[in-house]
């Protein structure tokens, strides 16, 4: 079994992949030199996350990720503090996030079967998360990562909260996730209302319906709405839908909820399976009590459409997994960044990521 030690010298930075957590962290492609395995190194800059509750959120995410064990939940190899940064070492999800796939190759939405395959994996992950006693509270395309083999897994666990308090399963939660501005368009109306009724794990099911629309349409729902109008529309029951020739010209209100009035030609030519329309519809029910649980959704007939069809990597072509891109394009290490990394005056500090932590 490969050991991933808390030793920065064994992780060779190859290039910068991007940023995360509102650019408070740098995401690097790296190589674990003892095993030659490619992986991801997130480097949280302590000076950027000390403010407000950001440091607590990062620590919470690391602890929770270590506690959870499921193929559709992001895992990590190790985490440690070195000088001014927290290093989080994770497996490489070679296709990146669903959001990056939409931006780079599928501006008008993923192929229908790809959407269904991803929804199945996300629903599996949610079912496990809910049975373990957690609500995710940040289901969105950018928090769904795809491996080289086409397995989808959930990330963004820093926003999650426990349903269990003092050993008792709570019927409703009343806390509002911190630093959640970027997730507002995917959140359920009952979570956004912040009233005495509170919300439960079915708020994640509403977000799953939003993701279904995002993946199929290639657009973020409510993208052009300001926060107040978005909340008003959700509370009165307005929800987006899958845009195809059966819905485009029959319900202009649903189309407006997509946040973009431009209609690509491909939308008017395609037609999604009725089971996928139904899946999306029941997830976006205004009343949470009417929405199905994740366990119930796993038996939805939409997933029978998968059968023995093409694999997700086949459906994602021409997109290539990151490992293939590196080999094909001959990308090399970003030397400027490596030099900066090597020149930094760092020393190793102790950091306890193993303790139990309550919300």
Structural features:
359 residues, 3-stranded antiparallel β-sheet, disordered C terminus
Structural write-up:
This protein has 359 residues and is α+β, with helices and mostly antiparallel strands. It is built from 14 helices and 13 strands. The strands form 4 sheets. It has a 6-stranded antiparallel β-sheet with strand order 1-2-3-5-4-13. Strands 6-8-9 form a 3-stranded antiparallel β-sheet. Helix 4 (112-132) runs antiparallel to helix 6 and helix 6 crosses helix 10 (274-283). The chain is globular and about 60 Å long. Residues 328-359 have low confidence and may be disordered.
Short synopsis of the structure:
The chain is α+β, with helices and mostly antiparallel strands and 359 residues long. It has helices at residues 46-49, 54-67, 98-104, 112-132, 189-193, 202-217, 227-235, 252-256, 265-269, 274-283, 294-297, 312-315, 322-329, 335-343, and strands at 11-20, 25-32, 37-45, 78-82, 85-91, 96-97, 134-135, 144-146, 152-154, 161-162, 164-165, 168-169, 348-349.
Outline the secondary-structure elements.
Layout: E1 11-20, E2 25-32, E3 37-45, H1 46-49, H2 54-67, E4 78-82, E5 85-91, E6 96-97, H3 98-104, H4 112-132, E7 134-135, E8 144-146, E9 152-154, E10 161-162, E11 164-165, E12 168-169, H5 189-193, H6 202-217, H7 227-235, H8 252-256, H9 265-269, H10 274-283, H11 294-297, H12 312-315, H13 322-329, H14 335-343, E13 348-349
Antiparallel strand pairs: 1-2, 2-3, 3-5, 4-5, 4-13, 6-8, 7-10, 8-9, 11-12
Helix pairs in contact: 4-6, 6-10
